[in-house]
Write a structure and sequence with these properties.
Layout lengths: L5 H4 L10 E4 L11 E6 L9 E3 L5 E2 L5 E2 L2 E4 L6 E4 L20
Antiparallel strand pairs: 1-2, 3-6, 4-5, 6-7
């Protein structure tokens, strides 16, 4: 996971203000109501199993924009990470249409 905020990149205390929420549904607005309780921080290695190419577009602090979302299996419901927050983008298969948000 990549955090564009320079002050968060060197922190090791996992401060809540430096965390990122993972979306419940990549096809809904990326708001606090659409975020799972699990948080992630800069440098966390996350394993995605598939992607959706046309979720809600997300723009980061440097105006990088992406509508690509990666599904991260975790306890309970799958969570989604916007591709704009990743440092690596290895090829992933497209998620089955029947599994948009878990």
């Amino acid at each position: 996971m990549f955090n564009a905020q320079r002050g968060c990149q060197d922190r090791t205390d996992r401060h809540p203000q430096c965390s990122l929420g993972l979306a419940i549904d990549p096809e809904r607005a990326y708001t606090a109501e659409n975020v799972v309780p699990t948080r992630v921080w800069h440098g966390d290695v996350l394993r995605a199993d598939c992607q959706v190419p046309r979720g809600v577009p997300v723009t980061d602090e440097e105006d990088l924009r992406s509508a690509l979302w990666a599904r991260l299996p975790h306890t309970g419901t799958p969570a989604w990470l916007p591709a704009v927050r990743t440092m690596d983008r290895p090829p992933l298969p497209r998620c089955p249409r029947s599994v948009p948000a878990g």
